[in-house]
Amino acid sequence: QVQLVESGGGLVQPGGSLRVSCAASESIFSIDVMGWYRQAPGKEREWVALIASGGTTNYKDSVKGRFTIARDNAKNTLSLQMNSLKPEDTAVYYCSAYNGVRYWGQGIQVTVSS
User: Fold this and answer.
1) Which of 40, 61, 77, 93 is the most exposed place for a label (fewest CB within 10 A)?
2) Cα distances (Å, whole numbers) of residue 89 to 7, 53, 73, 100, 112
3) Model pLDDT for residues 8-37, shown as the tens digit of each residue
4) How far, in Å, CA of 107 to CA of 18, rounded?
């Protein structure tokens, strides 16, 4: 069972940048898809960015051009670089791994506010 631990969240002003990371407890080399999801207060969890084992990425339209997902199979980590942040990006961000079974991290708060 893969355990995922997020780090790097916090408070940032609109227009600022933040990087969240996810450390996996075992090798992610063969994990089909890893991704970042988020859940804002009163809303359902939504996917934000996905990356396949071969490196193909996919982004939610509202974050395209601002967010970059990356995976490091050697270090068993996943990251999300978030630039030009907006208040509507405020949410708890979750790391996810899918390999026939979905695994979730515990989530980390990202708050965009002046």
Assistant:
1) 61
2) 17, 26, 27, 29, 7
3) 999 999 999 999 999 999 999 889 999 999
4) 15
